[in-house]
Design goal:
There is one protein chain. The mean pLDDT is about 95. This protein is globular. It is α/β, with parallel strands linked by helices. The protein has one domain (about 5-270): Metallo-beta-lactamase, Chain A (4-Layer Sandwich), CATH 3.60.15.10. Helix 5 (about 180-195) packs antiparallel against helix 6 (about 215-225). It is built from 6 helices and 16 strands. The N and C termini lie far apart (about 50 Å).
């Protein structure tokens, strides 16, 4: 079976999609909400319908292909305003097939969900709330990985999906990423505004791990990277050229020193201009 699921709470399911990426299904008394759509290999819509027949809204945490790649089979998807164009640029079948092949998936173009159209995209603002009937999901901004990256707060469960925004391998080297200095400032603002709202942290990829402490660790890591004397670890060309790892980690992205937060970055994207 290309999709599997596990129950996180009574009203929240985590769906493992082809390509080692997670989507999340929140179910209230009146509606369901799908957070992210994977890479669009096989029908996630059909699978979700086997889990819930409630009216469904689809929302993306950000505009990358492994989060909006499967959105084309749904009537519409809500994306952050700042990531609207990124989402449109990320859904080509060639790019998704290449990503999936890199994850060990055997891909037939016939099995790839059609590309998302401009007419299917809706946008949401920071702190938008989706009322599912006795269960609420609030989208919280955590800009850095992309200009529009958001986290999904499952309010009643005091659980937050950090997704790709803060994890054990945050990709901060991308052209669409903020500088590390801006990322640090945004993380501090997130901590000040929202850290009392959650106890449990979730992620978008199986290699990510960690608890609530990861936010403080990432802030501290940003400050280390910003120190002119800090020397990262050469990481080769990961999407872009001349990348660095902030901290040494094993092949499963577990830091050698036992801490959680880590990132890939480029030296020229450390400080604001």
């Amino acid at each position: 079976m290309p999709f599997t699921n596990e129950r996180i709470t009574e009203r929240l399911l985590r769906i493992r999609c082809p390509g080692n990426v997670f989507a999340y299904l929140a179910v209230g008394s009146r509606q369901a909400l799908l957070v992210d759509t994977g890479l669009g290999l096989y029908s996630l819509k059909e699978y979700v319908r086997s889990l819930s027949d409630l009216p469904l809204t689809v929302v993306a945490t950000h505009g990358h292909l492994d989060h909006v790649g499967g959105a084309g089979e749904f009537p519409f998807v809500c994306v952050p305003k700042k990531d609207r164009q990124l989402a449109l640029n990320s859904i080509g079948k060639d790019a998704r097939a290449n990503y999936l092949n890199g994850q060990g998936e055997s891909v037939s173009y016939e099995d790839l969900i059609r590309e998302l159209s401009e007419e299917q995209i809706r946008t949401y603002d920071p702190e938008s709330v989706f009322d599912l009937g006795g269960y609420h999901v609030k989208m919280l901004p955590m800009y850095g990985h992309t200009q529009g990256s958001h986290c999904a707060l499952f309010v009643e469960d005091r659980t937050v999906l950090f997704g790709d925004a803060c994890n054990s391998a945050a990709f901060m080297q991308l052209n669409e990423s903020t500088t590390i200095e801006e990322y640090r400032d945004n993380l501090k603002e997130f901590r000040e505004k929202y850290s009392d709202l959650y106890d449990q942290v979730l992620y978008s990829h199986p290699h990510n791990f960690g608890g609530k402490e990861i936010l403080d660790e990432m802030i501290g890591l940003c400050e280390e990277v910003m120190d002119p004397s800090f020397a990262g670890i050469p990481a080769g060309n990961i999407v872009t050229a001349n990348c660095l790892f902030a901290k040494a980690a094993d092949d499963g992205m577990t830091r050698n020193d036992g801490k959680c937060a880590n990132m890939v970055y480029r030296q020229e994207k450390v400080r604001k201009e």
